Each structure stands twice: as structure tokens, then as C-alpha cells.
Amino acid sequence: MTHPPTPPQNGQYMPNGRPRPGAATSAPDGPAQPRFIDYGNPRAYDTSVRPASGLTAARYAPAQIQRPDQTQPPSAWSTQARRVQDVAQNAARKPTVNIAVLLAVIVLSVSLLLVLGFFFLQFVTNSSANPVWWPVTAFLAGVSLLVIALIMLLADRWDPQPLPLLVIAVFWGAAIAVGISYVLNTLNGYLVYMVTGSADAASFAGAVLSAPLVEETTKGLGLLLLMVLARRYFNGPLDGLIYGSLIGGGFAFTENIIYYSRQLESSGAEWMFVLFFMRGVLGIFGHALYTAATGIIVGFVVRKWGTTMGFLVFIPALIPGMLMHGAWNLQASLGTGLLGSIIMYGGQGILVLLWLALIGVLIWDESRLTRVRLGDYANQGWLTHEEVDMLATWRGRREGKRWAAQIGAKPVMKRFIRESADLASIRQRLLADGANPKVVGIERTLLQRLTANRQELLASAR
Questions:
Q1: Distance between CA 321 and CA 173 in Å, rounded?
Q2: What is the full DSSP assignment across 14-71?
Q3: pLDDT in tens, 257-272
Q4: What's the DSSP call for residue 369?
Q5: Chain centroid to CA 454: how far?
Q6: Could you tell me the sign of the dihedral formed by the alpha carbons of 108, 110, 115, 119, in that order?
Q7: How far is CA 445 from the centre of its chain?
Q8: In Å, how far from its chain's centre is CA 353?
Q9: pLDDT (tens digit per residue) in 360-379
Q10: For 112, what's the count of Cα atoms within 13 Å in the CB-facing half-sphere?
Q11: Residues 431, 50: Cα–Cα separation, whole Å
């Protein structure tokens, strides 16, 4: 990729080559240059100031933005009359994923059926309860998962992730993480019993030690799988929170089926519904919180220091989730009655409020990052600054879609918005990982789509 030409060093430019804010944007005798606007402090997201060696070094050279052949003309939505015109409706393009993602969906779907089938057979063979109750337990567990999934879909509105990746997150938690955790927790319980000869000791160690360590690790591995399959869509702490919460929600789904079934067998339907209220209502977000903490840390490191550091930080990133999980299980194992329940559910309620507030902060942060990165392209002439305001703010997006609807081009505008957010994420990845040729190719494709979307909107406005 060619580097942009260096601006002349005169009074209109700062020593680092960037135009002075408010300065004229063209040389006296040269072609017009794009107008420069400072979109804030990009060092909050840039990694170009990090050391050139060591674990935080990029594998590739720094990524530069190529100048377009010509700067863009004024935005259609700021100059054209707002009038309705019949134009062809173009279907919005959905984010694409590779064949490995589709294969993962198929494998995990089969795995989920096998895991659920195993626990169903276990319930039928070991329980005297009517087998018709097992679908009831699955329905109750599904209600809690649905609530978590809806919250994550709302959190994912700014830069939506491809649906297959969201499905992988849920299925990994519900099938692979549960299956591996069930086997390892059972083995650990047997080992403690063999050493101590005490069933109580085995139960306590399993809940307080084995479960947090094993379950958070198996759930967290799903985050690494998603980075391997689709690093393009794992670009920051908000992505990590969404994927982690869905993995935790999927894990809780299958685990709740097990607990509800056992409660039904031991105490009857009434107490099963009591347990549903305790686990599926009051404690609904437990596993989602634990794995979301891991996802936030991994996502932040990936955005700031690149893919390699995202893998290296995995073990430390598990610690907050393990501690929260262990503290919950410890309090539950101590069983101190009403006071203990108040401490448990009150503490988790505070964590849930913080989690919801953090979602709002991360959405704002994601929009701010989009504005900064699209500002890089606007400063090079790929976009106008009016378009940055339209593409990178909630208000601008609403007004842009309203305007596009009046000229019959709303699908084009929605595609323009989504692919621009994708372009901003790709630019951030290029800063973190360096100019990886594959990612540079994705950037080039997205820039071509950006220009095509823009021209299509202009044509519709005419």
C-alpha cells in the first residue's frame, strides 16, 4: 500500500505533518487537499506509540491509509432536496463469514443435541418422575437464556456481529463447555473423595474450587475459538462482553436443566419452580457475568495490542470470573440462611447493575472509536466530515436513515452505516496488528464498498 504524500512544511502545518486546525487545506499552486478535523485524542485507541520489540510489537509494519484518487464531493443528504423517488430496492448485505464458521455451527449443533440427549437419558433412567417434565425444565432454562440473548442483541446494535458467531457462542457454552466441565468436575470430586473419604469435602471442593477453575476455563476457550474463526469481528471489549455473556448464558441453560431435573426428582415440581425462581430469575446473570469479565479483558487487549497479546492474556483474564464464581459458590455452600441469601443475591444484583452500566459505557466507547477511525479516512479524503457525523453518531444514523427512506434508498443507507462501522474496526485492527496483507485486502474491499454505497445514494438522490 502506498503511503500518502507528506504535506509541505509551511505555516499551515504542524511539525508532525498534520494540518493546523482551521488552516487552509490546499497548497497555493497544488490540488485541493481534504479538510483536516481533529476528532479527539486518538491515543486512547492507537498503538503506534508502543515499543517496536517485545510481546506488544506488531508483526507487520504500521498500516498507512492510501489517499483516494479524488476527495469526495459534498454529501447528498446535506445538499439534495428531500424528495421521494421510486428506485430499485437493493437487499442489504449481511456480514459474511468463512466456511470454518459454518462447519463450527454444524459441529456445535450436533454436540448440543448429544449433550442434551445424554442428560435426558440420564433423567429418564435415574428418575421416577414422568419424562414429560424434562421438556418443562428445558423450557424454564430457555426462558433465562432468551432474556440474556435479548439484552445482548440490544447491546450489539451499533456494530452487529454475524448471527453464526452468536450461535457459536451460545452452543459452545451449552454443549462443549458443559460437557467438558461435567466430566472434569466429576473426576475431581472422585479424587477428593478418594483422598479424604468424605462426601461433604468432595462436594465443597467441587463447588468452591473445581467448578470455578474448570468451568471458567472451558467457557473462556470459546472466546479463543471465536478469535481464531473470525478475528475480524472480535475487535474490542464490547465484542468480548457480548460473546462472553452468550457463552455464559448457554452454559447456564444446560446447567439449569440438570439442576431443575434433579430438584424435580428429589423434591417435586413445587420446589423445582422455587429453584427456577432462585436460579433463573434472581441469579439469572451469574455465568454471563463471569465469562463477560473474561471477554472484556481479552477484547480490550486485542484492540489495544493485537491478536497475539489477546491469546497471551487469556489466563490472567480468567481470574476475575473465577473469583466471582468461587465467591458465589462459597456463600451457597456455607448456607447461612436468610442473611446469606441476602448477601448472595444482593451482591450479584450490584454486579448486574454495574454490568448493565458497563454495557452502556462500552457502546458509547464503540461509537467514539468509530468516529475517530472514520475521521482518519475523512482526513485523507475518503469521506466528508458530514458523513462521519452521520455514520458515527446515533443521531446521525437516525437522520441518515430517515432521509434515505424519503428517496427509497434506506437499505443502501443501512448497508453504508454497517460497512462503515466494519471499516472502522478493520482500521483499528491494522493499528494493533500492523499492515497484515490479508487485513489490508479487507480494508481495500470495504473502501470500494464505501465508495459504491456513496455513489448509489447520490444516484438515488438525483
A1: 15
A2: -TTSPBPTTS-SB-TTS-B-PPP---S-GGGT--TTS-SSSTTS-SSPPP-PPPPSSP
A3: 999 999 998 888 999 9
A4: H
A5: 28
A6: positive
A7: 23
A8: 19
A9: 999 999 999 999 999 999 98
A10: 20
A11: 11
Q: In Å, how far are 142, 373, 374, 421 from 159, measured between CA atoms? A: 26, 14, 14, 6
Alpha-carbon gap, residue 206 to 189, rounded angstroms: 6
Residue 103: other Cβ atoms inside 10 A: 11
To which H or E segment does residue 247 belong? helix 237-267
The one-letter amino acid at 315: I
Query: What local confidence, expressed as pLDDT, does residue 26 receive?
Result: 43
| Cell 491478536, residue located | 307
- Name every residue whose Cβ is closer than 8 Å to that of residue 118 and which is 6 or more positions away in sequence: none
3-state secondary structure at position 13: strand
pLDDT attached to residue 411? 92
Sequence-distant (≥ 6) Cβ neighbours of residue 291 within 8 angstroms: 173, 216, 219, 220, 223, 244, 245, 247, 248, 251, 321
Q: Is 252 exposed, middle or buried (0-12, 13-18, 19+ CB in 10 A)?
A: buried
Asked whether 195 and 263 are in contact (CB, 8 A), the reply is no
Residue type, 294: T
Contact 436, 430 (CB under 8 A): yes
Statement: the pTM of the whole predicted model exceeds 0.90: no
Strand partners, 19: 13
Closest CA to 137 of 116, 152, 113: 116
For residue 12, give the amino acid letter. Answer: Q
Residue 70 phi/psi, 5-degree rounding, is: -150, 150
